[in-house]
Amino acid sequence: ASQRAAAVARDALHRAAAVLAEWEKWLGELDAVAGDGDHGIGMSRGSAAAASAADTALAAGAGVRTLLARAGEAWSDHAGGTSGALWGAALTVLGGRFGDHDPVTPEAVAEAVRAAVDAVIRLGGAQPGDKTLVDAATPFAEELAANVQKGASLDRALAEAAARATTAATGTARIAARRGRSRTHGDRSIGTPDPGATSFALVMTALSTHGGD
Ligand code: ADP
Ligand code: MG
Ligand code: MG
């Protein structure tokens, strides 16, 4: 069970890296509207480093907890920026809720996602409505837990949660940024979705459309 969960996590990180590389330029353009324009490159570099660290960990026989901790460190180290630090911490917290040798159930995934989102809120200090990735991650965690509780498969729950995150990310266009670098140019961001919420939704959509197993 342990190596299987680790392999699923490794594959998910590769899918995240692929979609973030694909949308790198657009994410940078979104961030340039009211921020410093580095969100695309940061997410692309961070996720690529995380995917590569996951390969190394898997080859060394690591379980899912250790693999996600290594991936999280690599993401923070290589991404730079606020979002890189938050994604790195989130991956480490996510992995920390699993054991290296325990089976990973849908309930455990939903609970670990909730803990990772809570860590992002605690570390970054943003609340829903501040126009950050928290605005996509919070409804994502809620929808995931609600679907798992109804007995949905993890794939199905992920797809529903990714759809919620996408709607929420799009909805951030209506609000002014109050957190992060964008806060000083908050009003300029009205009409443009938050880059971090957008990249979060892109990643979760990529994970759910390719399916787990
Ligand atoms: P930086 O702002 O350091 O250049 P990025 O451009 O990579 O970092 O990331 C910007 C994104 O990070 C924002 O669009 C937002 O979603 C997210 N973000 C910024 N500050 C916070 C925060 N305090 N809490 C949560 N997310 C944040
Ligand atoms: Mg930036
Ligand atoms: Mg920056």
From TrEMBL:
<feature type="region of interest" description="Disordered">
    <location>
        <begin position="170"/>
        <end position="195"/>
    </location>
</feature>
<feature type="domain" description="DhaL">
    <location>
        <begin position="7"/>
        <end position="209"/>
    </location>
</feature>
<protein>
    <submittedName>
        <fullName>Dihydroxyacetone kinase</fullName>
    </submittedName>
</protein>
